[in-house]
Amino acid sequence: MRANYGYKDGSGDYFIEVDTDRCDGCGKCVEACPAGVMEVGEDENDPLRDTPVAKVASSHRKKIKYSCAPCKPVSGRKTEPCRAACPKNALAHSW
Amino acid sequence: MAEEYWRWKEYRWTSPEVDWRDAKLITCGVDVGSVSTQVVIMADGKLYAYSNMRTGSSSPESAEKGLKWALEGTGLPRERINYTVGTGYGRVNVPFANRAITEIACHARGANFMYGPTVRTVLDMGGQDCKAIRCDEKGKVISFLMNDKCAAGTGRGMEVFADLLQVPIEKVGELSFEVEQEPPPVSSTCVVFAKSEASSLLRAGWPKNKVLAAYCSAMAHRIFTLLERIGVEKDFAITGGIAKNIGVVRRLEKELGLTVAKPKEDPQIAGAVGAALFAKTIVEKGKA
Amino acid sequence: MITAGIDMGAKNIKVVLLEDGKRILAKSQLPVGTDTKAATERAFAEALGKAGLKMDDVRHITSTGTGRTTAPYAKDNVTEVSAGAKGAVFLHPGTRTVIDVGAEEGKCLRCDAAGKVIDFAVNEKCAAGAGSFMEAMARALEVPLEELGPLALKSTKTIPMNAQCAVFAESEVVTLVHQKTAKEDIARAVNDAIADRITSMVRKVGFDPDVVLIGGVARNKAFVEAIKRNLQIQVMVPEDPEYVGALGAALAAAELEGVR
């Protein structure tokens, strides 16, 4: 499943997409994120799945524009830490 | 509250063909939304009875009332219900539910049942959010997004406009087509800024209908861009309050080049149907 | 030589008259309203009246702001970012970072000692990060906009605001009022929410001292306090923060006339 967490508002698109078919719930993105945006737990949208999966913490879902701003790849910054940490390449960002 | 405009008839229904006494497994799905609550009872995976009513100030009470009403006149004792799943905005506040499952999962599963296994895209436009879901032939979610951060593209955004123009919200769709020529859409996405834009259009002499048309097409376009992110495939189904606003739906159909699928039953019960179906699967898989 | 700057904001028109690129002679402000041209005429008449001048005395008028390209009288225009930097450095030469929060936009810029912009970011097209958000919340709280700051300063408690969108936040505020939450605490939550959004934009651009806060929202002391708290730094607020853009435009006009 391609789970899109985030939103679109007047200023643009702010989504983090987790490919839950690739994600094995290892939790490396959780460790890597300096803002505590990611978490690992039950797949809320696939109630029959048994293994845990990465998702965006509900407290950040309406403000990732702000939570993720320091890691946005602008002015020479490298890939976002969460994406760089994922061994399965399961994360994508809309920016 | 402005939501009052979206009033529909509260009602209940019992299947003339299904008898709960013959059923091995009886499951219940409860969808407590911000505006309405539906309770669906299924007998061995067949739709048996349901109720659809307004959500009161308390979610637990609304769920309780909905269940009583769904069971009314059926002779089915509530103890006979094997498993109950809650969904919707108030899903964690359903006192008699065994488990809570998100609307995303339940809408996909319910749409699969109601529209048939060919349904691939489900758009749920509620009062406070907008969900775009893609699912497979089994009703399993393959992609989704949910926008509940921004009022643009939700029922609330439309209410703000209906308020500004003092047009009853159920008339918005119809009135928006009473224009000689389709105007360009309102350019601001943000509802607050779109409102100022609309005020200046009115001051510039635009009739109300033209402003409504401009907003309906802006809303259709915004929903179109949300759908683009997940990709749209036939069959395409729309649920939720905005589904009743033809001003938005027809313009969206035009932009997508697709026609919206028609269900056999009221599309509003899709979430509760999905919840009842999940209840059945959970019991059958021994996960209850 | 007299030059003038006119800032065509989303809500208000601001005019500043400047002498020899050095001395501010007069300021005026009026709501944009329905007739921009009439409002501009009145704003100029007011400023000229205060300074005891006539329109003919003004050599060069430069515009800035959202509506800068359609500003009446203006010979040319400069961006809000450029005008903000010029104005802030003029008032406070140590300025290296300017945070400008107006009715419909929040901006952050870094500049050099000459007032030249090095980097900037803009929060636009969403009311959540601008003065419109505060206006909507003041309405929901049923207090005048100017009261929102003083009210928030009386608060003793931080309460969370869940909604980000101004439209949803309005309903949240109404619910909080119904639940008998103290208005002071709600006002503080509103100010903190917008300050947090502005702070994250500032962090994105990066900031060097001295930090100057301009734009109408800088009049709100609780907002200024929240920004200070978030950035852990002193910030300066000029006397009339909403006029800094118009001042910058008047300075640009003086530069074009070679008096600066």
Summary tags:
heterotrimer, A: 95 residues, alpha+beta, 3-stranded antiparallel β-sheet, two-stranded antiparallel ribbon, 28% strand, C: 260 residues, alpha/beta, 5-stranded mixed β-sheet, 10 strands, 22% strand
Arithmetic mean pLDDT of chain A: 93
Report the span from N to C terminus of chain A: 20 Å
Radius of gyration of chain B: 20 Å
Q: What is the overall pLDDT average of chain B? A: 92
3D shape of chain A = globular
| Global structural class of chain A | alpha+beta
Strand content of chain B: 15-25%
Q: Summarize this, please?
A:
The complex is a heterotrimer of chains A (95), B (288) and C (260). With 95 residues, chain A is an alpha+beta fold.
Explain this structure.
The complex is a heterotrimer of chains A (95), B (288) and C (260). Chain A has helices at residues 28-32, 64-67, 81-85, and strands at residues 2-9, 12-19, 38-41, 53-56, 91-93. By secondary structure, chain A is α+β, with helices and mostly antiparallel strands. A three-stranded antiparallel β-sheet of chain A has the order 1-2-5, with no helix packed on it. In chain A, strands 3-4 form a two-stranded antiparallel sheet. In chain A, a hairpin with a 2-residue loop joins strand 1 and strand 2. The relative contact order of chain A is 0.29. Chain B is of the alpha/beta class. Helices cover 36% and strands 20% of the residues of chain B. Chain B has eight helices and ten strands. In chain B, strand 7 (121-125) and strand 8 (130-135) form a beta hairpin. The longest helix of chain B is centred in the last third of the chain and has 23 residues, at 208-230. Chain C has helices spanning 36-51, 80-91, 131-141, 148-153, 166-178, 183-205, 221-231, 244-256; strands at 2-8, 12-19, 23-31, 58-64, 76-77, 97-101, 106-111, 117-123, 211-214, 235-236. Chain C has a five-stranded mixed β-sheet with strand order 3-2-1-4-5. Chain C has a five-stranded mixed β-sheet with strand order 8-7-6-9-10, sandwiched between helices. In chain C, helix 2 (80-91) crosses helix 8, helix 3 (131-141) packs parallel to helix 5 and helix 3 packs antiparallel against helix 6 (183-205). The model of chain C has no long low-confidence stretch (mean pLDDT 95). Chains in contact: A-B, A-C, B-C. The interface between A and B is medium-sized, with 20 and 32 residues. Strand 1 (2-9) of chain A pairs parallel with strand 9 (141-147) of chain B.
